[in-house]
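Hi Q.,

Before the meeting this afternoon, I wanted you to have the zinc ion prediction in hand. No need to reply - just skim if you have a minute. The sequence and ligand are here:
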Amino acid sequence: MSARYADVAVNAPVGPRRLFSYAVPDGMAVQPGQAVRVPFGPRTVQGIVFDLPDVPEVSKVRPIEAVIDPGPLLTPAQLQLARWVAEYYRASYFDAAALWAHLGFRQRARPVLTPSPTASPDMPADLTERGAAVLRLVRQRGRAGMSDVEESVGKRAAAAVVRVLLDRELVERRWEWERPSAGPRVARLVRLVVTPQQALEAAANLRALPVARLKKMKQLGFFSERQLNVESARDLRVNPGVRQAVILETLALGEDRQFLEDVCQSLGVGSDDVVALAQQGLIALETRRVVRDPLAGQSFVPRPAPPLTPAQAHAFGEVEQALEAAASTSPRGDRMPAAFLLHGVTGSGKTEVYLRALEKAVALGKKGIVLVPEIALTPQTVQRFAERFPNRVAVLHSALSPGEQYDEWWRIHDGAFDVVIGSRGAIFAPQPDLGLIVVDEEHEWTYKQHDATPHYHARDVALELARRTGAVLVMGSATPDVASYYRARRGEYRLLELPERVIVEEEADRPVVRLEPRLPQAEVVDLRDELRAGNRSMFSRTLAEGVRAALAAKEQVILFLNRRGASTFVQCRDCGFVLRCRRCDIALTYHTQGERMVCHQCNDRRPVPQLCPQCGGRRIRYLGAGTQKVAEEAASAFPGARLLRWDRDVTAGRRTHEVILRSFLAHEADILVGTQMIAKGLHIPLVTLVGVVCADIGLYTPDYRAGERTFQVLSQVAGRAGRGPRGGKVVFQTYSPQNYAIQAAARQDYVKFYEQEIASRRALGYPPYSRLALLRYAHTNNDVAREEAARLAQNIRRERDARGMVLDALGPAPGFPQRLRGRYRWQIVLRGADPAALLDAVPLPPGWDVDVDPAVLL
Ligand code: ADP
Ligand code: ZN
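Predicted structure with the ligand bound:
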């Protein structure tokens, strides 16, 4: 029996987790996961069927209008997961389900006004001036959209004026779907349907039509035998016979099937001419679907897998067993998946393990998804996968054109690829027969979608996806997320270790593989000593000497500034003291406005001290220099050195990463000054020195994960050293040489870092010992935002106390940056075992955004 009712998620701002009931008309087949169109208020909206409840007769439900595609858009597993995303991240069901849809799926209907055919054509005398203006507009143009109406009478009045015209039946309103943002590309082709000889004869006849003109042109020297296509522009313009002849001659003498667009453009003819030829039965018009392929034009030479090192072989063996076990049982429903945390230092061959695991999955008849952070999705990464799986790799990321994303999605859907590699959104790729999911650099914060809803974390979605499909999950990192490592230690994930670096050296033209158990170490330089020794420059003596030596040896230097999400904090340059919040133990942030130090967690405020509270020194300063400042100082400290800057400001312009990188690789500069981006997997043989100008920057960002993030980025930088045959050196400059994150990063000792970090998380009650939810409100008026935040915080505390819940509500405090895109941001952080339970009890007022498990608290 077919279902009579459907619970549908609608594409409308209805708030989180709401479904609406509709009747299924007789004869319409709908399944869970199906995309439909449904009436919603006065409009029609897109919907996705979540449930087909078996309920008795319900009155007053409206019917579904239409199904969008015959089959369901989401598989049962995807639909279950969409439900989880919506519930866990407290987002709308439609927004969650639409994550699995192709680009171009989301569409909205817009109202269009047309003159009412039954109304008298006269202008009613009692209409207001504005009403008359809109009616005139609709009648003159035959149709008008709301934007036309708004343009005519202003945004404010538009809705009321239209209401009156509709009530008086002077205009009618229809809903029209806006154009999708992406769709299939269909190209039109013209094809010759007669022989080339016949075509040329027909062309000659066509040319002969205006005989007098033709004679004249011949006299003037047109149409030499070899120049059939060259016509005078004027003749082409005025004479359709000549235009048609040219088309025939082109097809007769060249390819007999060509794209219509190319023909029209290169010959300067119109589609009318083509249609005329088709009507004469000389050519035919055809359509063909064109696939926009992001890897088009690149060819990949298949490359065999190298033999694995013992550590790799062990790690791969474990994954292989899990893949075989998964293949031999049926999908396992809601069970803990086989999840591995592959902890391997940089260059230890993690990617090689992923590749082997993918090969195994494919051999078992399965497919894979590989997530890499957006920054790591370089042509080199894609190439490495494409060489192992020639023509079987799809790429999905936001830098592809909408058309490429659309086509890639459908080809994945149709099972064309063994491997999908992409950034966070690729976890929603419609890859069938999923057997393996790889999340590389699993600690990367770019896996969290923080700028749009749902605020999902791709790694956590991957875990849920693996759970529901029985796929095996491999998460890899040199510096795992502290929470992931914690879970691995507790046995929730299986921990695999690759402790040695794989070093490939060319010996007698043959690559020789060597294992290096000792990792390069960074030298920590205490900047407080520099000041005492009278060195006021940004560069310590150690770093400056190193730079000079490298320059003298014609080697290259990277000066690195850790600036991602960094705030301006105050630190004593004599003793290294940092001003912290007394209540929250996080660094206070300097605000120029009012010259204040502000806690971005609890909003505690203090004046900026003139003397250091610890040592009484006067050299208490703001830290937070930019790359430009570093580049300027480097230019004066190392005259003659060629400098190159690489940061977001520079790359936002015309000079892309690739251009800068290539130029530095070609040794067109001696010193590269840059931020995070240069820390990533770069291998530049001539670089023998990497200097971290101020390792403290980022450490005192008001966020419980500041230490973790600083450790991660500094370890990556330390990992740069000693890669080339010339060896190399890394220098960390700091005012806090004893800081555990800086120390552990310099020694590349993850476990040491982890143990200190997890102890402090436990002491302060931060994740993984609690959960967080970040509530944020933004408004153009700072007072309005602050008051709204204060009101909600009060409600939350009252509700919490009334229900006896154990939970901290921190704040409200200003966001960081406090003002973003013209709006002031205020936030509340909920911290406890179950913030969701409180959010169930206190529904958020409109305008509030909630980020569950926020990656950053800023
Ligand atoms: P990771 O992903 O851990 O940073 P990679 O997989 O990129 O490490 O390996 C680092 C380098 O070592 C790469 O150039 C890779 O080709 C090489 N490599 C890795 N494993 C092997 C192996 N078993 N035999 C030979 N070369 C290897
Ligand atoms: Zn505080």
